[in-house]
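TL;DR need structure tokens for one chain.
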Amino acid sequence: MTEIWTEKYRPTKFEELVGQEEIARRVESLTKSLNIPHFLFAGPAGTGKSTLALIIVKELYGKDWKENYLELNASDERGINVVREKVKNFARTKSLGNVPFKVIFLDEADALTPEAQQALRRTMENFSSTCRFILSCNYSSKIIDPIQSRCVIFRFKLLEKKDIEKVIKRIAAAEGLTITPEAIDVLYEASEGDCRRCINIMQSTATISPQITPELVSTVISSTRPKDIRVVLDYALAGDFQNAREKLLDIMLKESISGQDVIKSIQKEIWNLPIEPEIKVRLTEKTGEIEFRIVEGSDPFIQLEALLASFVLAGLGKH
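>> reply
TL;DR here they are.
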């Protein structure tokens, strides 16, 4: 498997973009009429923003799309000089072919410095007759208002399970893989609505075996299984801190699970516990506090022990 599946199976037509059908329809209508404004695509990673930008330029220019398209992403320098030189030089030249403008795609535009955004807003204004801009970002709030007001904003959403399942089954059929419904569930949970992550996990799993099972997926992603976390929490709620601690240590060391992954699994499992809703709320609040401390650099195991202590107290009615 030499080819990266996220590129091999990247959609090439508007109707192939799963999970964002309404956005794709609206953008397709604008593209085919050549009535294209500047676009701002905002939303989580792996939801189709870059793919839609590529579909637009290929629809506009056909085989000449590379000559009329400039892409800059977060790996490039993103200061004011890039906007003043590289972007401006590309924007001021005329397009090749029948379309009267070129397209510049700025991926992860929220990484642009405020000064670069100010320079970009003037460039967008001055070269609107010869160039269209497509900006993508995770957080539109980090894009200055003058740029937002110059763009039509489309907000992408995380993909639902039915959308991820559609992609998984299409790839499995093309690659001759067998995948169980339970494995699809695990893949979706691991991807958290990010289609790119899901495909990468699926490719990694397929290199081991064409029979994709939940156990195989769990091995590849090295994530905690809900039933393992449930055992830890059941021990804690029963007041057995020692066994809860040992099981937690076992999960983290033997399966090489990070503290942040454990805390996410605990947060999800809290709502399946047979305890009062008020206690669930308190434990969720405590989980958030512990997660913050881990992110800030505290020792993960000590913090998770403190969280287990809170579960023990909750089980004893001392919450």
